[in-house]
Amino acid sequence: MVHLNVTLPDSLVKEVRESDYAGWFTPFEFNNARSPDHSKRFYYQKRYEWKSQLLNEWIDRFAPDRRVLDLFCANGAFSVRAALAGAKEVTGVDAEESRISVADLLARSLEGHVDTKLGFHVRDVHEVLAEDEVYDLVMCFGGLYHVSDPAAMLEKLYHKTSKYAIIQTSHVVQAPGSWGWFRLPRGQDTYVPQWPSETGGWSLTAGCYRRLLRNAGFRILEEQRPPYALRPRFRWYAAMVEKVV
Ligand SMILES: C[S@@+](CC[C@H](N)C(=O)[O-])C[C@H]1O[C@@H](n2cnc3c(N)ncnc32)[C@H](O)[C@@H]1O
To answer: What is the DSSP string of the chain?
Structure first.
């Protein structure tokens, strides 16, 4: 749960109340409203709580005064963090319309509270990565494991940032070495490389992610994993990286 110390005007309280709960990938609470309840809320809250422990400190350190691109942004929880940290501009992209509509609501709720130019777009990240525009910091959380070619995506991401990127990925194999496997979506014998593809994808070791990052041209500045006791549930690897030029 993200608590935003913001009192919403009545029109936005109504929008929050009437919004589709599926759009709230990360639940939010305002001074006078909270995102709709649903059966998975507790899990969603815990997931954000642990993910933010891995990532928020990096965002707070590297986002201020920078132009930030948030790939796979969902409803923009980490974009909002970057804005609150003082980013100059944040662009979030996600393929899921209901999530971007919630992200847009969040951007409007922050008007007058932050100086950041916030913009959210329903887009496929592959298209965005193919464009020439470059950002100071690219955030890529929770997406790399479910694209068909993570190595190619990291190489494109290298060209999308002028200096820094923060990468977080899931389904990490808890073992030493550099290896992994590819899962096809249940009941299918082909893989759709574009969204929606969350039921298939890569299970790779942290060692493999390190090699992919270095191969794409990044230097790993810092790494984060959840505490051991949580890794069976949250199989994550996160890295703060810098371009080697
Ligand atoms: C696991 S969620 C991660 C959300 C957020 N970054 C976080 O870490 O809290 C993955 C998101 O990626 C989006 N997505 C998956 N494939 C995509 C694609 N090819 N282009 C844009 N968004 C995509 C999904 O809609 C989903 O919201």
So the answer is: -EE---PPPHHHHHHHHHS-GGG-SS-EEETTEEPPP-TTHHHHHHHHHHHHHHHHHHHHHH-TTSEEEEET-TT-HHHHHHHHHT-SEEEEEES-HHHHHHHHHHHHHTBTTB--EEEEEE--HHHHHHS---EEEEEEES-GGGSS-HHHHHHHHHHHEEEEEEEEE-S-B-SSSS-EEEEPPTT-SS---SSS-TTSEEEEBHHHHHHHHHHHTEEEEEEE---GGGTTTS--EEEEEEE--
Which fold would CATH assign to domain 45-243? Rossmann fold (3.40.50)
Inform me whether the pLDDT recorded for 4 exceeds 50: yes
pLDDT, tens only, 61-70: 999 999 999 9
Asked whether 141 lines ligand 1 (CB < 6 A), one says yes
Q: How far is the CA of 169 from the centre of ligand 1 (A)?
A: 11
Domain boundaries, the chain: 45-243
Distance 212 CA to ligand 1 centre (A): 20
Ligand 1 within 6 A of 236 CB?
no
Residue 143 CB–ligand 1 contact under 6 Å: yes
